């Protein structure tokens, strides 16, 4: 059973005034508006529940008899925990001045939302940068009312419910007596004024949907999935408020030859078995144009040749990544009679008619005898 007297720090024979005084003291220390610590908020719930019980004569009698009037647990009907801080919000306003005037009417003009647009780019465009002209549909300031939301020749009128304050006051009775609370005016939604004659173009919102074009510069070295921020190019806010930002997300198309890993590029080049053995020079198309790639004699399968600074430029830095060329040695699968005889002659000259993995004692050498 919860220790309600202990939660408030009072004796079991404490008077109603002592209980009320103890609660008010603790509430001032633990209320979320004063102490945002999660432990303090949990403690505030406990002392609130304790006061709810001990301030009620019937519930307090149940406690004095050894029972628990909240035995059904938090979240059940009638439990203070089921209402969080809302049940005592008005009382706490009286303690701490929450909502008790001073806020005034809020502005009709508000910040606009951000927007997101995706563009596809080739590898060469993301590597060296490109300018793109984009067409998008966003909210822009209404040209008819210049964002005011009113019909031409008219103006917002002062709200007759709150007299332009944007808030209304209400007196409520509580266990502490009469408490005055302040809430946003329900008629003007806290704006302090109402639009009696809204603009026919934007219906009083101060903005309309329109199609417009702009140019975005994609920097050199940008990677797939990166976003470019264009400040103030997003949605215009209600009431003609400042626009949000536009984020342009770059989607890099797959390249038919190169794959990208950061700023490095990779490609696979097949070469004949004879070219790998004898060496050769082959043409290779890179991002910078056509080049000649030298294949050294005796090149082995899956060997990788690295061309320095032939990759993607570093974003916001000097230098470039590398191009890694993976050589794929192709072994012929079909030979005519003359080709086969030539290869057999080569094998005899090299002593490779019966190759073994580990010499004479090799496993395959023994099996081929």
Q: Explain this structure to me?
A:
With 369 residues, the chain is an alpha+beta fold. The protein folds into 4 domains: 4-96, Helix Hairpins, CATH 1.10.287.110; 115-152 and 200-252, Sandwich (HSP40/DNAj peptide-binding domain), CATH 2.60.260; 157-194, no CATH class; 259-331, Sandwich (HSP40/DNAj peptide-binding domain). Helix content is 22%, strand content 27%. The protein contains 9 helices and 15 strands. It has helices spanning 4-8, 16-30, 38-54, 57-64, 89-96, 123-128, 273-278, 337-349, 363-367; strands spanning 115-121, 130-141, 157-158, 167-174, 177-184, 193-194, 207-218, 227-230, 246-252, 259-261, 264-272, 280-286, 289-295, 304-307, 323-330. The strands form 6 sheets. The protein has a 4-stranded mixed sheet with strand order 10-11-15-14. It has a 3-stranded mixed sheet with strand order 1-9-8. Strand 12 and strand 13 (289-295) form a beta hairpin. Helix 2 (16-30) packs antiparallel against helix 3 (38-54). It is elongated. The N and C termini lie far apart (91 Å). Residues 72-102 and 358-369 have low confidence and may be disordered.
């Amino acid at each position: 059973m919860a220790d309600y007297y202990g939660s408030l720090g009072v004796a079991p024979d404490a008077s109603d005034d002592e209980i009320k005084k103890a609660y008010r003291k603790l509430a001032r220390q633990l209320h979320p508006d004063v102490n945002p610590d999660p432990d303090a908020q949990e403690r505030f719930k406990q002392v609130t529940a304790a006061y709810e019980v001990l301030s009620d004569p019937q519930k307090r009698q149940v406690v004095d008899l050894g029972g628990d009037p909240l035995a059904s647990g938090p979240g059940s009907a009638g439990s203070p925990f089921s209402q969080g801080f809302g049940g005592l919000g008005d009382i706490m306003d009286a303690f701490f001045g929450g909502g008790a005037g001073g806020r005034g009417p809020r502005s009709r003009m508000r910040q606009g939302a951000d927007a997101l647009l995706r563009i596809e780019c080739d590898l060469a465009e993301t590597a060296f940068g490109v300018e793109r002209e984009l067409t998008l549909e966003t909210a822009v300031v209404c040209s008819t009312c210049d964002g005011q939301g009113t019909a031409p020749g008219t103006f917002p009128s002062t709200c007759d419910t709150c007299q332009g304050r944007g808030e209304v006051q209400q007196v409520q009775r509580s266990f502490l007596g009469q408490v005055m609370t302040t809430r946003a005016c329900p008629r003007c939604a806290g704006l302090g004024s109402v639009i009696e004659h809204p603009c026919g173009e934007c219906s009083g919102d101060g903005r309309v949907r329109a199609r417009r074009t702009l140019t975005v510069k994609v920097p050199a070295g940008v990677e797939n999935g990166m976003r470019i921020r264009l400040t103030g190019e997003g949605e215009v806010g209600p009431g003609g408020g400042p626009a949000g930002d536009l984020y342009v997300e770059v989607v890099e198309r797959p390249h038919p030859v190169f794959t990208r890993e950061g700023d490095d590029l990779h490609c696979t080049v097949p070469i004949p078995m004879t070219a790998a053995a004898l060496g050769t020079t082959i043409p290779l198309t890179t991002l910078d144009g056509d080049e000649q790639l030298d294949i050294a004699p005796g090149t082995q399968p899956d060997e990788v040749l690295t061309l320095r600074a032939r990759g993607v430029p570093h974003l916001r830095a000097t230098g470039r990544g590398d191009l890694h060329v993976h050589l794929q040695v192709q072994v012929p699968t079909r030979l005519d009679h003359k080709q086969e005889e030539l290869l057999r002659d080569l094998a005899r000259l090299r002593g490779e008619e019966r190759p073994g993995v580990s010499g004479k004692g090799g496993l395959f050498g023994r099996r081929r005898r």
